[in-house]
Design brief:
Structural class of chain A: mainly beta
Number of helices of chain A: 0
Helix content of chain A: under 10%
Shape of chain A: globular
Strand content of chain A: over 45%
Largest interface: A-B, 22 and 25 residues
Strand content of chain B: over 45%
Number of strands of chain A: 11
Largest sheet of chain A: 6 strands, mixed
Oligomer: heterodimer
Chain lengths: ~110, ~110
Amino acid sequence: GENVEQHPSTLSVQEGDSAVIKCTYSDSASNYFPWYKQELGKRPQLIIDIRSNVGEKKDQRIAVTLNKTAKHFSLHITETQPEDSAVYFCAASMNTGFQKLVFGTGTRLLVSP
Amino acid sequence: DVKVTQSSRYLVKRTGEKVFLECVQDMDHENMFWYRQDPGLGLRLIYFSYDVKMKEKGDIPEGYSVSREKKERFSLILESASTNQTSMYLCASITSGMEGYTFGSGTRLTVV
C-alpha cells in the first residue's frame, strides 16, 4: 500500500521567514495530494491540495509543488506569521472512488515573533 | 457547513471494556473514515466505509470493528479496550466531488 514520509518533524522559523515541508510517497498511482493544518486542540483543516496533472498551485502565502517523477511534493509558506504555528500533515490518495487518504507523520511549525 | 459530530470529546475507560465511539455527519456523505492520531505517527486509518453496511479495513484494524447501519452514522468499536488504544480518534467524511475531508473534533480516549 501507499506510504507517505514527511520531513522535518519540527520546524522553527522567525516571523517573516519562509517555511518548507517536504513529503515523499511510494505509490506512483497516487494522484491527489492535500495538505492539512491542525491548530492546537482543533480538528485538521484542508489548506491546499494538488492533483497529479498539475506541477504547482498557489493560494496567497501558501503553495504546493509536485514532482511526479521523484514522487515528492512540498508545502511552501512565505512571510510566515505566528498564526501559521500548527501541525501540518501531507497526504496522498489514489482515485479509487473511496477517497482514502494516507497521511504523513506531521510537521510541527513554530513561528516566533 | 458540513458537520461531523463525535459524541464524546474525552473518554476514560477501563482495560477490557467494550467501547463505542460514535460519529454522525449531516450531509449525506457516502464515505466515512476512522483514524487514530498519535504523536510522531500522524493519522493512521483504522477502518472506512463507502456505503451503508459496507466496511473496509484500513492500515491498523486489529482490535477494532465498525458499524454503519445508517448512512449518517459510523461507529468505531473497541471490542476489549487495552492501554495501547489510548489515543485521539478522529472521524472524517467526504463525498465525491469534494476536495477534502471534513473531520470531527476528535475523541481523546484514555484506557486505564
